[in-house]
Design a protein that fits this description.
The structure is a single chain. The chain has helices at 79-89, 94-98, 110-116, 158-167, 175-183, and strands at 36-39, 42-46, 63-67, 70-73, 100-104, 120-121, 124-131, 210-211, 215-216, 246-252, 275-278, 298-300, 309-310, 314-316. It has 317 residues and is an alpha+beta fold. It has a domain at 36-78 and 151-316: paralog of FGE (formylglycine-generating enzyme) (Alpha-Beta Complex). β6 (120-121) and β7 (124-131) form a beta hairpin. The chain is globular and about 55 Å long. Residues 1-7 have low confidence and may be disordered.
């Protein structure tokens, strides 16, 4: 399978194409606020100049941003919630319509691995195209979510996340809202709890432990996605803002956007081939990808879906 840029974190279904005007940002204040926190907004410092990221990601320059107050879900949308949406609407995800999605090679059975070798992403062979992999069947046929109702819904594309949010009377967070929320009230820190990865030797998020991609010691308690309310919440009471699964944001991605973005309520470039995703995932490891930081950025095409990419919603106050 042909490699696609950015596939070490979350492979793309196909090269992107600009979607100018495909979706228009609008504020929404109709959905229930149950399971949400109201954040006061105001000014915060977005991005970083620290230089521990990747130049192509455009993490800098650090710059002041002012936001309106907004509500945000305390956790990613879980399988139980996504199931309610599908049952109410009959919605078919893009993975279901395409007939396949990307799965981490290490999560496949030996039998699946034998056939998946032909479907590996070149250059990021830990990713495989798996026929029949969907949100209901995260590792493909034979897998299921019966014991994972409180795990994040994955194999959900940006378009799928948008559909769920509209049904719930909410929207996807802007990239600025996401970072403000992830920081939990702290300024110029790498993680939602501070600047130290494992303060006091305690694991505070679900990321790869050991030697990637072959040996995960599971020292943090998980090999794949963890339940959405795992670990201690940040200062705003939000869970798993880093690690566990990547989260879709509203914004289109441009590496130079921070140099031209408005100072108040930025919503991303008007046209873009890819959409922003934030927070890192359980597959992140410092040896190849330290994007499990509040200021880190990545992106994917809006029709792509993987086993480490989910979302949470916001609504306006």
């Amino acid at each position: 399978m042909e490699n696609v840029p950015g596939s070490c974190c979350s492979p793309a279904r196909a090269p992107g194409r600009a979607e100018a005007g495909a979706a228009q940002f609008r504020r929404i204040a109709t959905g229930s606020t149950a399971g949400m926190k109201l954040l006061p907004g105001g000014e915060f410092r977005m991005g970083t100049d620290a230089g521990y990221g990747y130049p192509a990601d455009g993490e800098g320059p650090a710059h002041p941003v002012t936001l309106q107050p907004f509500w945000i879900e305390v956790a990613c949308v879980c399988n139980e919630e996504f199931n309610a949406f599908v049952n109410a609407t009959g919605y078919k995800t893009e993975a279901e319509r395409f007939g396949w999605s990307f799965v981490f090679f290490g999560h496949l059975t030996p039998g699946q691995q034998a056939t998946a070798v032909r479907q590996q992403v070149v250059g990021s062979e830990w990713w495989c195209r798996v026929d029949g992999a969907t949100w209901r069947h995260p590792e493909g046929p034979g897998s299921h979510i019966k014991k994972r109702w409180r795990h994040p819904a994955v194999h959900v594309s940006w378009h799928d996340a948008l559909a769920y949010a509209a049904w719930a009377g909410k929207r996807l967070p802007t990239e600025a809202e996401w970072e403000y929320a992830a920081r939990g009230g702290l300024a110029d820190q790498r993680f939602p709890w501070g600047d130290e990865l494992e303060p006091g030797g305690r694991h505070r998020m679900n990321v790869w432990q050991g030697i990637f991609p072959t040996d995960n010691t599971c020292a943090d308690g998980h090999y794949g996605p963890a339940p959405v309310l795992s670990y201690k919440p940040n200062g705003f009471g939000l869970f798993c803002m880093t690690g566990n699964v990547w989260e879709w944001c509203w914004d289109g991605f441009a590496a130079d956007y921070y140099r031209q973005s408005p100072g108040a309520d930025p919503t991303g470039p008007a046209a873009a081939e890819r959409r922003v995703m934030r927070g890192g995932s359980y597959l992140c490891h410092a040896s190849y990808c330290n994007r499990y930081r509040v200021d880190a950025r990545s992106s994917n095409t809006p029709d792509s879906s993987t086993t480490n990419l989910g979302f949470r919603c916001v609504r306006d106050s």
